Amino acid sequence: MSDIYKTDALIAEDIDKYLEIHQHKTMLRFITCGSVDDGKSTLIGRLLYDSKMIFEDQLATLESDSKRVGTQGEGIDFALLVDGLAAEREQGITIDVAYRFFATDKRKFIVADTPGHEQYTRNMVTGASTADLAVILIDARKGVLTQTRRHSYLAHLIGIRNIVLAVNKMDLIGYDRAKYDAIVADYRAFAESIGISEFTAIPISGLAGDNITTRSDNTPWHDGPVLLEHLETVELNQSVEQDKPFRMAVQWVNRPNLDFRGFSGTIATGSVAVGDSVRVLPSGKTSTISRIVTMDGDLAQAVAGQAITLCLADEIDCSRGQLITAAKSPVEVADQFEATVIWMDEVDLTPGRTYWMKLGPQTVSATISQPKYQVNVNTMEQLAAKTLDLNAIGVANVTVDRDIPFAPYTDSRDLGGFILIDKMTNRTVGAGLIHFSLRRAQNIHRQATDISREHHASLKNQAPMVLWMTGLSGSGKSTIANLVEKKLARMNRHTFLLDGDNVRHGLNKDLGFTDTDRVENIRRVGEVARLMTDAGLIVITAFISPFRSEREMVRGVMQPGEFIEVFIDTPLEEAEKRDVKGLYAKARAGELKNFTGIDSPYEPPEAPQIRIDTTQMSADAAADLIIAKLLP
Amino acid sequence: MTQSTLTHLQRLEAEAIHIMREVVAQADNPVMLYSVGKDSACMLHVAKKAFYPSPPPFPLLHVDTTWKFKAMYAMREAAARKAGMQLIVHQNPDALRQGINPFDHGGLHTDMWKTEGLKQALDLHGFDAAFGGARRDEEKSRAKERIFSFRTASHRWDPKNQRPELWRTYNAHKAKGESMRVFPLSNWTELDIWQYIHLENIDIVPLYYAAKRPTVERDGMLLMVDDDRFPLCDGEEPVMRSVRFRTLGCYPLTGAVESEATTLPQIIQEMLLTTTSERQGRAIDHDQAASMEKKKQEGYF
Question: In this protein, which residues make up the domain named Phosphoadenosine phosphosulphate reductase (chain B) (predicted)?
Fold first, then answer.
């Protein structure tokens, strides 16, 4: 049994001894999965209560709260200890992830308490992402339910190796061993089907306290551990991570003066010692560890989980986001992956759109393909899907804008787990788990041609570029673009005008006006414009191109400096007043859906190279201004 | 290679270092909120470790109320100097002009000096990320706050609209004017803080240790008469009692506990054997269970 009740005496008698013991505690993070009805909050409340993490004043509050809003009549409602925010308490459910702390002599514990309902899948995934262990709660009266399967699937997906099956409310089935055994057998069959080979089953009662901290007399037939004992002894992820090859992503280059250059980061896996050969990725350069620096003095070696600063024997390029690995077992470097994507935002995934992808300290632009399939998290069936909505989990290809070092998620959470950030709202919209890199990227090589883009340009005696006009419908893009082209033609410049409406009659006639189609529309136009600049042309485009992220995507495919963003700035009221094509009237009447400025957003450029205020100048003057800026 | 298991304090320290480095690498203009308390002392100590041999690449900011304990002001200057960091002190000029004080103005004192004062200071210097020493074990609404906690341009926190925070991958992206509050000590408990101070020999304000101090009893709280601005009631006489403080703030709002603990182990011993939680000594939380959540939504740290 646990020692938590024995410590009081030691604290009073020999505090120094007590502190000495407590300095050597390890730390376990775990998550509890189950719904309110399974007694999850009650279990956590019980653990806090039994390990004396509740003070008298908190207990007084708890008692008064229990009477006011509790569900246990006059008894203490342990769940209220854990249900944090005011609104949630009123609704009687936990909505977010709450972190709780308690400790015994052997370990400090951090519990991520997350809600169990399907609409809170993202919260559970969040809580599970840092956990070493998951406690899956089952109501003994109900057995394995849909939600049990969902929680187990998610815990396994996110890489939790230690699963505890806590069969709760044993008191309500009279501590019936046969019923318990049947539930465990039932769960085992399911667990094996999704790849969970091992788990620890414990019959408990959160309310009555059976097999939580002490072995219960009510279950003499249970020969496994009690819950706290198991939590105190289970192997930590950190120990497992140490046995893997060395990897550390560089977070920050430490350069206080010219004599010191160190690479700061947290060791993801493995260990490192002075003298070890290392390889920096993606460059592939090798060197040797010369120092492991900490404020407490240099170390001879350091292990997974430590935050350190490494010095290398050679002056090689290494910056934030690069990965220092054991020289003999580096990781793969690629720009296309298959990954599981978990969507976490109210706005659906837009396949083809670029998002920020943050993988450790690396931040790159990424696009997600249409999902290969979505997983029904209740049945684990694979379903066809065009996109992913809030809490959906699917498998898709991910393409990033440069080669990045990575490891499969199953090898390393740090090197294979990424988040997706919307470039406009900056929200964290999704999370991903890398499976493997796609060979496709390696098998398609660019064919070198003899007539270079420079040659094409020099024949035309001009510098190729793209004049990208963006603005609301009716802002004057096409009119100004047309005038610019006419004026350039008079100056013997070789130009081509790509107009939104015209392209939609041909190349893009298969596309509509949904966000996904708008993204693809701009992607294709961007690629065509790029080919034309390779041919040496000055390309003028006139597209609403409402999203900042897609305009940036086009800028990204062009040669540096060849993308000129021209913001045709006409306020919505003005464009609507002009309504040259009568489209605003239709949109206002509801006859036209997804119309930019009405029921679809327009994101103005933040720093366009040229801004034209059409309320202040004529189209002709605007064209002159643009040309003056281009050809000074 | 031999296995070496990190202790819980080593892991908490490593986590805090990781968080601080992420902020420095991503924020344009970070700052560390320094309240002179024990949590700030720990946070500052971790910051020195995170960037060693460089000094922490950000200034310290003390949002002053003019009502802190004298011993805290003394500590403040010394700590910044030792760390080789710039110290910025901000006092809300409106509160100063109106003479806002904890005796006459109740909740307005905290609101104007601390909440408004903090917002003013962040705006004035254009800080886009501010480290705070808050811990999740302090109070219920903290328990679910993110480590990187996003604030709107008007410094508001929306508890219903927090960004998912996975692994140790933190999203620091934000628009102009918006900011992050970052809590590197989120996962520490009060006991962790004390143990760390003990192990690392961190300097803390002497008020944490018991000594004879002039005190009066008000509404069940022992208050220290730190200077002559303390209005004594008729017949009220400060009594010398051996007291210490478990938490430090404005002296008229901070309750002392009677204690004989003059060493760190003794403090920890008392803490472990004690029966009231830390925030009990602060008047701010007492109004209602959800008061801290409300204050935080309005921009309080």
Answer: 29-255
Q: Give me the pLDDT at residue A248, please.
A: 96
Mean pLDDT of A111-119: 77
Catalogue the active-site residues of A. 545
In a shared domain, residues A187 and A167: yes
Inter-chain residue contact B166 with A12, CB threshold 8 Å: no
Are residues A253 and A394 both part of a single domain? no
Claim to verify: residue A143 and residue A86 sit in the same structural domain: yes
Give the predicted TM-score (pTM) of the model: 0.79
Supply B294's token pair: 């409300």
> Min CA distance, A41 vs chain B (Å)?
14
In this complex, the residue of A26, A295, A306 whose CB is nearest that of residue B48 is A295
Is the reported ipTM for this assembly greater than 0.90? Answer: no
Q: Are residues A416 and A495 in the same domain?
A: no
Size of interface A-B (CB pairs under 8 A): 202
The answer as to whether A144 is a domain residue is yes
What is the spatial distance between Cα A492 and Cα B182, in angstroms, rounded to a whole number?
58
Q: Do A360 and B169 touch (CB under 8 A)?
A: yes
Nearest to A421 among B48, B173, B198 (CB): B173
Beta-bridge partners for A332: A406
Q: Is residue A404 part of a domain?
A: yes
pLDDT tens figures, A534-574: 999 999 999 898 888 888 888 888 888 899 999 999 999 99
Residue A448 located in a structural domain: no
Chain B residues touching A361 at Cβ < 8 A: 22, 25
Last residue of one domain, picked from the residues A393, A410, A439 = A439
- What tokens were used for B90? 């901000």
Q: Which residue of A has its CA nearest to B194?
A: A19
* In the block, residue with structure tokens 């963006």: A470
- Same-domain pairing of A473 and A614: yes
Could you tell me the CA-to-CA distances from B268 to A457, B15, B271 in Å, in that order?
Answer: 76, 23, 5
pLDDT in tens, B110-129: 888 888 888 888 889 999 99
Dig out the tokens for B93 from the structure.
Answer: 């000029």
A201 plus A284 within the same structural domain? no
Cβ distance of A16 and B265 shorter than 8 Å? yes
Band (B284; pLDDT cuts 50, 70, 90) = very low
Q: What residue in A sits closest to B178 (Cα-Cα)?
A: A426
Indicate which CATH number applies to the domain containing A577.
Answer: 3.40.50.300
Identity of the residue in B48, B268, B273 whose CB atom sits nearest the CB atom of A12: B273
What distance in Å separates the CA atoms of residue B245 and residue A618, rounded to the nearest whole number?
72
Which residues in chain A touch residue B136, judged by CB atoms under 8 angstroms apart? 99, 101
Give the integer Cα–Cα distance in Å for B149 and B129.
Answer: 10
With CB atoms and an 8 Å threshold, state whether A97 touches B144. Answer: yes
A74 & A177 share domain: yes
Question: Do residues B262 and B247 lie in contact, with contact meaning Cβ atoms separated by under 8 Å?
Answer: no
Concatenated DSSP letters of A272-330: EETT-EEEEETTTEEEEEEEEE-TT--BSEEETT-EEEEEESS-----TT-EEEETTSP
Q: Are residues A480 and A605 in the same domain?
A: yes
Sorted by where each starts, the structural domains of chain B and their CATH numbers stand as: 8-192+290-297 (3.40.50.620), 205-283 (no CATH)
Q: Per the structure block, which two tokens stand in for A204?
A: 């408990």
Please list every residue in chain B whose beta carbon sits closer than 8 Å to the beta carbon of residue A359: 169
Range of the domain at A209: 7-235
Residue of chain B with shortest Cα separation from A260: B53
Binding-site entries of A for GTP: 34-41, 113-117, 168-171
Is B21 within 8 Å of A98 when comparing Cβ atoms?
Answer: no
Of B167, B178, B277, the CB nearest to A129: B167
Q: What is the mean pLDDT of residues B3-12?
A: 84
DSSP for A506-520, written as a single string: TTTTT--SSHHHHHH
Is the residue at A149 inside a domain? yes
Q: How confident is the model at residue A85 (pLDDT cuts 50, 70, 90)?
A: very low
Given A183, A203, A235, the domain boundary residue is A235
* Count of domains for chain A: 4
Q: How far is B182 from chain A (nearest CA, A)?
A: 16
**Predicted confidence (pLDDT) per residue in A150-196, tens digit:** 889 989 999 998 999 999 999 999 999 999 999 999 999 999 988 89
Distance from CA of B268 to the nearest CA of A (A): 8
* For residue A133, pLDDT beyond 70: yes
